[in-house]
Amino acid sequence: MVKNVDYCGIYSGKKIDKSEIFEVFYGELKAAPLIEKCPMNLECRLTQSIELGQYILLIAEIAELHVDADCMTEGKVDPSKIDPLIYAPDIWNYYSLGKTVAKAFSVGEKAGE
After folding, report:
1. Residue among 19, 13, 26, 28 at smallest CA distance from 62
2. CA neighbours closer than 13 Å in the CB half-sphere of residue 67
3. Within-domain flag for 38
4. Environment class of residue 78 by beta-carbon count within 10 Å: exposed (0-12), middle (13-18) or buried (19+)?
5. How many domains does the chain fold into?
6. d(Cα 58, Cα 50) in Å, to the nearest integer?
7. Mean pLDDT over all residues of the chain?
8. Rounded-to-integer distance, Cα 38 and Cα 112, Å
9. What is the spatial distance between Cα 45 and Cα 58, in angstroms, rounded to a whole number?
10. Most buried residue, 5, 13, 47, 106, by most Cβ within 10 Å?
11. E-assigned strands of the chain?
12. Does some domain include residue 113?
């Protein structure tokens, strides 16, 4: 999927039709295309667009969260099963999430000792 994601970042939708790159489905809004092979999709409702020079800042609210059942553990989203693609803009690289480092709200309990 990284090749298709990068392609979408390289080329502007104003110049190239990218609608055929991914197989899509539609959720509750029926207007926002969601990527079929993505283990997690955030279905968003556009609330505002702001022109900033040559760019347009889009502000949206999440209307629905779609997560594949096999990416859940005990009814909760499991990031290790999703293995999200992470883009680091300063160094122009993509990364995967990696391993768990520590348990939140417990590892820091004894930091001041």
Report:
1. 28
2. 15
3. yes
4. middle
5. 1
6. 7
7. 91
8. 41
9. 10
10. 5
11. 24-26, 33-35, 40-52, 55-67, 72-73, 76-77, 85-88, 93-96
12. no
